[in-house]
Amino acid sequence: MTNSALHWTTREALFVALVRRERVILLTELRDRVGGGPATFPGLLRELTVELIRRPLLRAVLLGDSEVLGRLTRQRRRPETGAELRASLERYVRALLDHGALRQDLSPDEHVNVLAAIFYGFHRVPELTFGAHRFADERLPDLLGDTVHRALGAEQPVSAEDAEAISRATREYLDFAFETAQQKLQHSLGVQGAG
Q1: CA-to-CA distance for 40 and 148, rounded, in angstroms?
Q2: H, E, C per residue of the chain
Q3: Between 20 and 30 A from 54 (CA), which of 24, 32, 83, 159?
């Protein structure tokens, strides 16, 4: 299929395809950066933040920024895709717990909720903070990663065997997210057999 054969019936459909393409590019970069060596949970979130900063459109979508997106902030996710991604995140958090990467005194749901509060909070802070209290985007990834580590990380270091299992679980989580994003992009592009 050539680009000249692509067409969208609405502006919203074109926008969805653009966002999906950006998400695939982000996940490709993230897999390359995280998948090449030992992968940790705070490291994954740090690199995700680096990639989001480089992609203002995806950051606007993440935050539901109506100034940037206008009516397009109301785009609906397919419920089945959301459920699949939530299940994948839950498996990932359970693997991190099983291999000692996270605090054991919190449930998987508590881990996910604290993570969401930290992640979205750090991305919202710049628009809520004024003047000298605002930190630069360049500091955001390190501050976020450190905060996740301090809030959710285990007190004891993990064994080499557990570290390898954590890296493997991180790569599997990223692979699933990438495959899901790729399928959605193919669907937007009208590729047959795409979900």
Answers
A1: 11
A2: CCHHHCCCCCHHHHHHHHHHHHHHHHHHHHHHHHHCCCCCHHHHHHHHHHHHHHCHHHHHHHHCCHHHHHHHHHCCCCHHHHHHHHHHHHHHHHHHHHCCCECCCCCHHHHHHHHHHHHHHHHHHHHHCCHHHCCCHHHHHHHHHHHHHHHHECCCCCCHHHHHHHHHHHHHHHHHHHHHHHHHHHHHCCCCCCC
A3: 83
Domains and CATH numbers, the chain: 3-188 (1.10.357)
pLDDT at 61 over 50: yes
Integer Cα distance of 187 and 195 in angstroms = 6
Q: Which amino acid is located at 49 in the chain?
A: T
Distance CA 145, CA 142 (A): 5
Rg (CA), the chain: 18
Q: Which residues pair with 153 in a beta bridge?
A: 102
Q: pLDDT tens across 78-94, in order?
A: 555 578 888 899 999 99
- Whole-prediction pTM: 0.82
Alpha-carbon distance 148 to 122, whole Å?
11
- Distance separating alpha carbons of residues 26 and 50, to the nearest angstrom: 10
Span 133-147, average pLDDT: 87
